[in-house]
Amino acid sequence: MTRINQAVLLAAGRGTRMRELTVDLPKPMIEVRGKPVLQYIVEGLRDAGVRKFLIIVGYRAETVSNFFGDGSRYKIDIQYATQVVQDGTGRVVDLAHDFVGGSPFVLSYGDILVAPQNYQRLVELADDADAVISVKRGEDVSKGGAVFLNERMELVDLREKAEPGGASSPWYNAGLYTFRPSIFEFTVKLQPSPRGEYELTDAVRDLAHSGKKVKALEIAGEWADVRDPEILARLNKL
């Protein structure tokens, strides 16, 4: 088992579905119960033992860097990289290549909230696995990734925003991963998806299809993709 102490957080997007809420700040800096979503992620990973962070910024980048600084007030080290062109989650991971070096890392989308105990499980990677993908039951797979697993909870297929009427899966991509650096072999070869974006999920699927093991981890407790004002309102009401 490999213990992981570094993380890459994707915080470059505006989040157009948030409408006027993201005029002045990127979506990961929207507050839930008085605290930015990204702060929950940073603190959750820190409490699980992660000490080195790379936050990938883009839209309103200074909002993120001014808030977190170099990480010293959280007793961690934070570096930043900038996604200049907003062309999806696939190529943006390449910006982390030098940061992670030859060691495995946790990767989180910047708008995902989970119960803190899940981070403890993400920072441990089995020696025979090249990646971990987090999954959640009972979500609408047309809004994200449908994850297809075998009986050993290993990834067989991954389809982004599956069409209604297609093959269905009870598992939804929950937006947190653990990777060995082998993922970069697949992100660098990505082609644009039908949406015109480079999708990280395509690289994860290609990694699994290459014969490398991608394990699934079912998220325990609370999980939310803070993707629109309705979800935000529900979270702030709880």
Report the total helices: 8
Radius of gyration: 17 Å
General form: globular
The secondary structure category is: alpha/beta
Low-confidence stretches: none
CATH homologous group name: Spore Coat Polysaccharide Biosynthesis Protein SpsA, Chain A
Total strand count, please?
Answer: 15
CATH topology (fold) name: Spore Coat Polysaccharide Biosynthesis Protein SpsA, Chain A
Measured distance between first and last alpha carbons: 37 Å
What can you see in these coordinates?
The longest helix has 11 residues, at 37-47. It is globular and about 45 Å long. The model has no long low-confidence stretch (mean pLDDT 91). β11 (145-149) and β12 (155-160) form a beta hairpin. By secondary structure, it is an alpha/beta fold. It has helices spanning 37-47, 61-68, 89-92, 97-100, 117-122, 184-187, 200-209, 229-237; strands at 2-3, 6-11, 31-32, 35-36, 52-57, 77-82, 105-109, 112-114, 124-125, 131-137, 145-149, 155-160, 171-179, 214-218, 223-225. The relative contact order is 0.19. The chain has one domain (2-237): Spore Coat Polysaccharide Biosynthesis Protein SpsA, Chain A (Alpha-Beta Complex).
